[in-house]
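Q: Hi! Curious about what Sodium:solute symporter looks like structurally. Here's the sequence.
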Amino acid sequence: MAVDYLVIVVYLAGMLAMGWWGMRRAKSKSEFLVAGRRLGPAMYSGTMAAIVLGGASTIGGVGLGYQYGLSGAWMVFTIGLGLLALSVFFSARIARLKVYTVSEMLDLRYGGRAGVISGVVMWAYTLMLAVTSTIAYATIFDVLFDINRTLAIVLGGSIVVAYSTLGGMWSITLTDMVQFVVKTIGVLLLLLPIAVVKAGGFGEMRAQLPTAYFDPLGIGGETIFTYVLIYTFGMLIGQDIWQRVFTARSDRTARWGGTVAGTYCLAYALAGAVIGTAAKVLYPKLASPDDAFATIVKDELPVGVRGLVLAAGLAAVMSTSSGALIACATVANNDIWSRLRGIVRPSGGEHDEVKGNRAFILLMGLAVIGTAIALNDVVQALTVAYNLLVGGLLVPILGGLLWRRGTAQGALAAVAVGGLAVVGLMAAHGILANEPVYYGLSASFAAYVVVSLATRPTDAAVLAAWRERLAGRAPAIESPSEQVPAAQ
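A: Let's find out. The predicted structure is below.
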């Protein structure tokens, strides 16, 4: 394993080095939180694909393939569909808003009265998303170094917190590009063909496994529908995803770069399911489906290649973890803490705000590591995150973008009713039940429509300013240091 260890150590050292290099570029709030809003198509596509394809998509996607066969691709497939929908229909408008958080968008649309409540819901979502990725370190580091779960979480989490705190979005963007390349080589170009060959090819796989393993809908229609509700719609409104859209240098970059990333996700979904199906042939009696990825890597890959593929697994986890962490810290600082304290930012104070946002990344990172150590179930934590996001925020966000009659009171009612309904139904029916997201979303929609129609329409001046911002005719004020050439 010496060669594999060397590959991993070099990879981790490279992540920290890029964090240090990114710190030299993050001189303003815009540079620190959204990479100066100047990523070109190549970097934008790579980093967007990296953040949405995390540990759940890699380790969990292979595990679903092990359990259900090719239909196990549906979870990651719906993530790709959500990213495609966001890119084609909404990303251009989102990029033109020139804001930092989803709550700021809600304030612009509804007149400045939705920020704190929506910020709390979004903070809970991003926190749990970061926790799920951090828990996944235990699986990879257990295979690599045979260390206990807590130490694995602390080791992996500390590296992510370090480079994210140093350079913010610039560090995360640079590391995500490396992680995107490593994932592509490790999972698509190496693990996928090797797994299929080791399993005897597709003919042998068909002969060894039940027919249901090759049924595209074998996982079940209700499960697929739930995936669409949670992941496809979740991609449309998550702070972690929007914050990447904010990094695009133009609305065209956001649209086409995101479309490329979404298409990549569809291919990645199928690859994970095929790898899991091959693992079922090779190891028919694993204790847990989520062990499939680590087991096939450990037992079937040659020295050196094994290290690279395990680095790909780490890359998948780290990219989502760092993206969720900076989103969590951005929401906590800008949407909750600053609003509760009533802070008014002085003109020209962008540089000073970097220190505050850096401190919040460190604080949230410590909270994420501590929570990950306390929890054990990745699926439950991820389900809580997406249930809160979709049940509480989907309706007011999409309503604000698509329905002119929506009001601030309707948005607040939708967030409160949907969020409380999701929490209550998870307590009553269980975290993994379908009812929380079904009925929570329905309750949120009803509250939004009824309360909006029962209250005065949004002020005409607010709507006029909103339309100007959507059209890109009212650019946000940026500091002089941000006026530099776009990154490709």
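A: A fun detail: The chain has 20 helices and no strands.
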